[in-house]
């Protein structure tokens, strides 16, 4: 998947970095702008942040759907293997089963960040951590 010349791993990282850049400039905006203008900018910020947060979590949803489909394929192969009478077909099914067990479907960003359901949970926890950090820093100053 290419979007503006970026592959999918770079695209997800750009979304995450832009989300946190919006988060970090919010405090400076509050200091320099009047209250009503800040409220308008916060509404835009929340809309943009929710949109980018959803975009970050969509690949994890698709990967989980693919995991479910691969598990279903493995179940079908195992059922066919147990019912099969032909030796050659049974050997091919056995190779397919061992291939799916040895090489399960995994997708990583830069071979470090796994794209699965844990991405959504870790992203949400990271967002809440930085929101709490910004609120605490704002109260101290």
Write the layout of secondary structure elements.
Blueprint: H1 8-32, H2 35-83, H3 87-102, E1 108-109, E2 113-114, H4 117-140
Antiparallel strand pairs: 1-2
Helix pairs in contact: 1-2, 1-4, 2-3, 2-4
Low-confidence stretches: none
Main structural class: mainly alpha
Distance between the termini: 44 Å
Number of helical stretches of at least 4 residues: 4
Radius of gyration: 23 Å
Number of strands: 2
| Strand content bin | under 5%
Any idea how many domains? 1
Sketch the major β-sheet.
Answer: 2 strands, antiparallel
Quaternary structure of the protein = single chain
Percent helix among the residues? over 70%
Mean pLDDT: 78
| Net shape | rod-shaped
Order of strands, main sheet, comes to: 1-2
Question: How do you describe this structure in short?
Answer:
By secondary structure, the protein is an all-alpha fold. The chain is built from 4 helices and 2 strands.
Descriptive overview:
It is a single chain. This protein has helices at residues 8-32, 35-83, 87-102, 117-140, and strands spanning 108-109, 113-114. It is an all-alpha fold. A two-stranded antiparallel ribbon has the order 1-2. Helix 1 packs parallel to helix 4, helix 2 (35-83) runs antiparallel to helix 3 (87-102) and helix 2 (35-83) runs antiparallel to helix 4. The longest helix is centred in the middle third of the chain and has 49 residues, at 35-83. It starts with 7 loop residues before the first helix and ends with a helix. The mean pLDDT is 78.
């Amino acid at each position: 998947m290419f979007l503006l010349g970026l592959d999918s791993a770079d695209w997800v990282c750009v979304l995450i970095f832009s989300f946190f850049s919006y988060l970090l400039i919010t405090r400076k905006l509050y200091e320099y702008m009047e209250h009503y203008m800040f409220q308008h900018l916060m509404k835009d910020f929340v809309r943009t942040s929710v949109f980018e947060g959803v975009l970050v979590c969509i690949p994890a949803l698709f990967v989980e759907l693919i995991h479910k489909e691969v598990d279903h394929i493995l179940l079908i192969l195992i059922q066919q293997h147990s019912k099969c009478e032909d030796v050659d077909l049974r050997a091919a099914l056995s190779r397919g089963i061992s291939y799916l067990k040895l090489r399960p479907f995994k997708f990583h960003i830069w071979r470090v960040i796994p794209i699965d359901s844990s991405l959504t949970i870790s992203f949400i926890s990271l967002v809440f951590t930085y929101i709490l950090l910004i609120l605490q820093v704002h109260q101290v100053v």
